[in-house]
Amino acid sequence: MQPPVSRAVEFETHPGRWTLGGYAEAYGIVETDADSPRQRPEGIFDAILSGDLYGVRPHLDVQMLVGGPPEHATGFGIFNFQDVFQNISPSIEFEEGYFDFTLANIDIRAGLQKFAWGKLDRFHPTDIVNPRQFSDPFLTDETDAKIGIPSISASGYPPDPQSQWLSSPSVTLLWVPVPIPFRFPLQDERWFPPAATVPPIVEIPAGVLGPLLPSATIRTTFATANTAAHQRLEDGAFGARLAGLSAGVDWSLYFYNGRETAPAFDLGTSVRLAMDREPGTIVLDGTAVLQPRFGQIWLTGGDAAFQFAGFTARAEAAYGSNRLVPRSTADLVSTENILRAVGPDITSILQRLLMGETVPVNLGDLFERRDVVEWGVGVDYAYKGWTPVLQINQAVVLHNDVTLLVPNVDTRLLAALRKTFLSDRLASELIGVQGFERSYTTAIARLTYTLTDYLRIRAGYLLIAGSRNTVLGQYKNNDEVFLQIRLSH
Description:
This protein is mainly beta. The chain has a single domain (9-181, 229-260, 295-327, 365-488), classed as Porin (Beta Barrel), CATH 2.40.160.10. 5% of the residues lie in helices and 51% in strands. It contains four helices and 25 strands. The strands form two sheets. It has an 18-stranded antiparallel β-barrel. Strand 23 (440-450) and strand 24 form a beta hairpin. The chain is globular and about 80 Å long. It starts with 8 loop residues before the first strand and ends with a strand. Mean pLDDT is 92; it is low at 1-6.
């Protein structure tokens, strides 16, 4: 849904013309489940400056956030490019900041950029160049969720052969010299994933750790911590896009080699003998620390779109190698997995515990490296202001033999219906997503009313349901009513 038309302020300086625009937005929610974590009202202030400087076109987009998801924030600050967990409010973020150059048939852009790959609606298998922030993952627009990355991109436009089989060809190359991590909510925030938490008490039945040992109780303390990620030139990324038109089909091919931009973590665990335990019992104080994990991947894919009989059809597919796929922490702290982890060394571990040591316990990887194939097809049709959309996506995890938070085959159906009224001033939208192999459902219903060219009001409802053992269904307690008011200039 588009914001109100922005009337940017134009002004001239030597040597060119500049524009200053942006928006201010108030956003709040009402939780509909008593067990749902809170999210405070927030204010967003966004300023965009563009200009022309001797043929070089600078662009800067800066955003300030006040309130919102952060809890127990440390105070005012600027989001940095090193940490995954950042608890600051009010905050300032540099969304984008780059220079555009045009040289003959080549366009060059250098600076902080966001890239958009893929043609499907909402779920894009190929769109992995930018890491994302997950402070409000269901309602944040796709572009706003992306984190700008320092990069250089060059798009070339070869002579157009103007044939039926190829026209309007273009080649885009991009280089990301320094990788930027994703940004994730902290454990006290509304959108921290329940599947990543550890229960406060873990009980181990008598005889599991040894035939003569009593039951054990582990009192766990859970925390998050940043991990220093390498940001060297050899850790950067390279991408390429080849696009064109063939027989009426708008197509693109993609390649990416670099840092995994999807969120991934390690769970470090340790235990020590509790000082306040009763004689004859085993009570352990455990610590579980969730830390970001980084890896290198490569991905290749493509998309296509074409029109027929008033319909627009789209398709997109990608093959990714060494993708990091999540497990649930509940699997890692299960009795069976604890026994597997400590069984071979139980005698040594007990001796160290009795000596008062803190003993690290390796429960295995929270995220597994797997090759993943993702694809999707969709179709939409515009009729008298109505636009229905139907799309199916599927992710296939290859060569997997462990239980993951996503099934080895994850199929989801997206259905959307959009309609405008009152000379396009009132826009309605209904979006539903249904997962099949492990049932989960999400739905968004919203109305957007443009009062003036500068002011819009948006209200709606977010529904989440399904199995907690899924990436989306784990947020089933977070249904909400939301309201946004945006003033643009």
